[in-house]
Design goal:
By secondary structure, the chain is of the alpha/beta class. The chain has a single domain, classed as Alpha-Beta Barrel (TIM Barrel).
Length: 323
């Protein structure tokens, strides 16, 4: 009989041993909770395709953030649903815009929370695209000024981090220059550097009321079959001054996440997007999976692939499970 010297199972025999040699560990500090801010007072409307996720008025969002902080969440990212929309997304950069109001309110009540602001235009444009439209085309360079104005207004309202997600070429550089010129050089930029034109965004578009009124976003978001192109996108944002790079979506692009991790020695974020969240929720509601176990396994895979920061609607639940 062959003598077996190495037995990996020796270190799997108990939870204590498994924990001792565990290679990848989730921490409460890893997670960012996305929140959707809507007009009104006392509004808390559940998003039908995202159980447990709500559209929240500023007062409700402020209470939600306070409770989330008490539960261990240390970072949130805010998305806005304005009262009115127009061609130039003026609500995105208005001083009294919905996200700007929420930032100020949250800053007063939970000053230690890290507040990130999604810097995009699609929720605020009447056409639902992430930039200026002319003759049916999304214009890149004309959109940069609006994105920079939006980031500036978010920073002036008190955001710690602005997160440009429009996938306009040059957006990070335009935002960095605008912030620096305003004396806001210490505001960080988390760039949605690698954002794919994914089918996993459907529930988000319901939550944010941001579906395009015509066409789609494939002319500016990345083509899903492309991986090497992701490194070019990340390099451009890094060279323009991004402090954090992001890959979105997360679980179906773990290979890309690993590639970006291996190339760049800066904090790396990944967005566990609405469709990825909704799939777990739906299967759990059917009784087909153990929701908590699959949630932890999924988020661990994102961390294992190289993410330092994970944006997820499961932020509160995973922190509760870890505790």
């Amino acid at each position: 009989m062959v003598q077996i010297i190495h037995r990996p199972r020796r270190l799997r025999k108990s939870e204590a041993l498994r924990s001792l040699v565990r290679e990848t560990r989730l921490s409460a500090d890893n997670f960012v909770l996305p929140l959707f801010i809507c007009p009104g007072t006392g509004v808390r409307n559940e998003v039908s395709s995202m159980p447990g996720v709500h559209n929240l008025s500023v007062d409700e969002a402020t209470s939600e953030v306070s409770a989330a902080f008490d539960a261990g969440v240390r970072s949130v990212i805010l998305f806005g649903l304005p009262e009115t929309k127009d061609e130039l997304a003026s609500g995105a950069f208005a001083e009294d815009g919905i996200v700007q109001k929420a930032i100020r309110s949250i800053r007063r009540t939970t000053p230690e929370m890290i507040i990130m602001a999604d810097t995009c235009l699609c929720e605020y444009t009447s056409h639902g695209h992430c930039g200026v439209i002319r003759d049916g085309e999304v214009l890149n360079d004309e959109s940069l000024e609006l994105l920079a104005r939006t980031a500036l207004s978010q920073a002036e309202a008190g955001a710690d981090v602005v997160a440009p997600s429009a996938m306009m070429d040059g957006q990070v550089g335009a935002i960095r220059e605008t912030l620096d010129d305003a004396g806001l050089e210490n505001i960080a930029i988390m760039a949605y550097a690698v954002k794919y034109a994914s089918g996993f965004y459907g529930p988000f578009r319901e939550a944010a009321d941001s579906a395009p009124s015509f066409g789609d976003r494939r002319s500016y978001q990345m083509d899903p079959p492309n991986a090497r192109e992701a490194l070019r996108e990340a390099e451009l944002d890094y060279s323009e001054g991004a402090d954090i790079l992001m890959v979105k979506p997360a679980t179906v692009y773990l290979d890309v996440l690993k590639m970006v991790r291996d190339r760049f020695d800066v904090p790396l974020a990944a967005y566990h997007v609405s469709g990825e969240y909704a799939l777990i929720k739906a299967a759990a509601q059917k009784g087909w999976i153990d929701e908590q176990r699959v949630m932890l396994e999924t988020l661990t895979s994102i961390k294992r692939a190289g993410a330092d920061i994970i944006l997820t609607y499961y932020a509160r639940e995973v922190i509760r499970a870890l505790s």
